[in-house]
């Protein structure tokens, strides 16, 4: 059992008979009244994010989860296949458990989160940032914009389309944030 004082981002709790990951939380102590904790919870099975408020000090069941390193191998009609980096066991995982499949590349190292009691895969976490080569983008022309932060679409090696600054050309390598598919920087 854990209390609201133990909340942290990424913590897995059991709430209303389902498993949720805490995406965001904030302890609030109003001037009048009791303290409370405002949270954003991501449902493990559906992927929906809900907002919920807990009174301060409320006890919740913390679900035991394990994070294990895996390598992405390939995709077929059974799902996405991953290999455990420690035991070399291969497992298929359905697409709904992976947040950003458009940036998943063969051989990529990922982290699979397992429910420790049932040994079932709950979700797949990609690295925070990944580096890909731009396979196609329109050339940016100086003077095309009226603002300083104009973007254009670029296709990377996985087929994903990312909005990049005008100075990025075909063949450049770029770093992409996997949480929101945003351009981070050009890589030399």
TrEMBL record:
Extract one GO molecular function annotation from the record: translation elongation factor activity
Pfam families (alphabetical): EFP (PF01132), EFP_N (PF08207), Elong-fact-P_C (PF09285)
Coiled coil located at which positions?
none
Query: What keywords are annotated for this sequence in UniProt?
Result: Cytoplasm, Elongation factor, Protein biosynthesis
- Chief site of localization: cytoplasm
Q: Which domain of life is it from?
A: Bacteria
> Is Protein biosynthesis there in the keyword field?
yes
Q: In which pathway does it act?
A: Protein biosynthesis; polypeptide chain elongation
Q: Which SMART domains match?
A: EFP (SM01185), Elong-fact-P_C (SM00841)
Concerning InterPro entries, the annotation shows:
Elong-fact-P_C (IPR015365), NA-bd_OB-fold (IPR012340), Rib_uL2_dom2 (IPR014722), Transl_elong_fac_P/YeiP (IPR020599), Transl_elong_KOW-like (IPR013185), Transl_elong_P/YeiP_cen (IPR001059), Transl_elong_P/YeiP_CS (IPR013852), Transl_elongation_fac_P (IPR011768)
UniProt keyword Methyltransferase, yes or no: no
Where in or outside the cell it occurs: the entry states: Cytoplasm
Cite the Elongation factor P C-terminal domain residue spans from the record. Answer: 130-186
UniProt domain Translation elongation factor P/YeiP central: residue ranges: 67-122
**HAMAP family from the entry?**
EF_P
Question: Which family does the record claim for this protein?
Answer: Belongs to the elongation factor P family.
Primary role: Involved in peptide bond synthesis. Stimulates efficient translation and peptide-bond synthesis on native or reconstituted 70S ribosomes in vitro. Probably functions indirectly by altering the affinity of the ribosome for aminoacyl-tRNA, thus increasing their reactivity as acceptors for peptidyl transferase.
PANTHER family linked: ELONGATION FACTOR P, ELONGATION FACTOR P (EF-P) FAMILY PROTEIN
The protein depicted here goes by the name Elongation factor P
Question: What species is given as this protein's source?
Answer: Carboxylicivirga mesophila
From the UniProt record, report the name of the gene that encodes this protein: efp
């Amino acid at each position: 059992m854990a209390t609201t004082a133990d909340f942290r981002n990424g913590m897995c709790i059991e709430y209303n008979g389902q498993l949720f990951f805490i995406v965001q939380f904030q302890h609030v102590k109003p001037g009048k009244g009791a303290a409370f904790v405002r949270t954003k919870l991501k449902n493990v099975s559906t992927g929906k994010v809900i907002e919920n408020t807990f009174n301060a000090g409320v006890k919740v069941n913390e679900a035991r989860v394990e994070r294990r390193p895996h390598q992405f191998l390939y995709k077929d009609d059974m799902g996405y296949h991953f290999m455990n980096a420690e035991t070399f066991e291969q497992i298929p995982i359905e697409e709904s458990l992976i947040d950003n499949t458009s940036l998943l590349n063969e051989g990529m190292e990922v982290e699979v989160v397992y429910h420790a009691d049932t040994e079932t895969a709950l979700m797949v976490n990609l690295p925070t940032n990944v580096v890909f080569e731009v396979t196609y983008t329109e050339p940016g022309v100086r003077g095309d914009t009226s603002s300083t932060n104009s973007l254009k679409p670029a296709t990377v090696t996985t087929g994903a389309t990312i909005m990049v600054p005008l100075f990025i050309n075909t063949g450049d390598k770029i770093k992409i944030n996997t949480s929101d598919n945003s351009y981070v920087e050009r890589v030399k």
